[in-house]
Amino acid sequence: MTNGQTMHTLPGSRFPATRWTLVLAAGGPKRKEARSALVSLCENYWYPLYAYLRRRGYPADQAQDLTQEFFVRVLEGRYLDRADPEKGRFRSFLLTSLKFFIADEKDRRSAQKRGGGMVVSLEFSSGEERYQREPAHGETPERIFERRWALSVLDRVLGKLREEFVRHGRPEHFERLKAFLLGQADAPYTALARELKTSEGALKVAIHRLRKRYRDLFRQEIADTVADPAEVESELRYLAAVLTRR
Question: What is the 3-state secondary structure (H, E, C) of 98-122?
Fold first, then answer.
């Protein structure tokens, strides 16, 4: 929610019209825009659900069908009435709704009948390749979902940051500087400044600005997945804990 916006309830919905809850308001005043935003969220965050299903023991083809079918159902407005308005995180909504979905036998239909021809474009081939690289230890489906969700947020933010560098004609700068965001920097400032043809002082300023922009984009990404701006900080802390736990 941007500054100056007020919270209100959409017609026919128990959810406040903020960020992702607006896109879930089927039949609301901004349905077309809402649908586009929801499609974008689904396309960006489908893999954690796919990994969850695979870890629950579903074979790849069935996990693909279930993931695809589930998002079609969400886009049709299903499961919205089962989401808990007190837990207004898109992350929690998706996982809870998926559990309802896979427990509902009538929604397990063949791919040929899927959504009356509706298709959600998801990169399942790359998803299965990613899943095969997941740790083989006994991580629960819920924990693998949460970790993959947190990493998906990181990937989204890094992708947006890289796009900004590309627009300014400096993609190589991003590739060299992103290590300072990920705690992987191994080159001393002096050597890196010489490589990028800049001064050490200018390099430190650039890294400082990069980190600030990274934090801003990260907050924006989180704000798009929670119902209440007051939940941004707690979601940031939660995802940080997810990424650091063993």
Answer: HHHHHHCHHHCCCHHHHHHHCCCCC
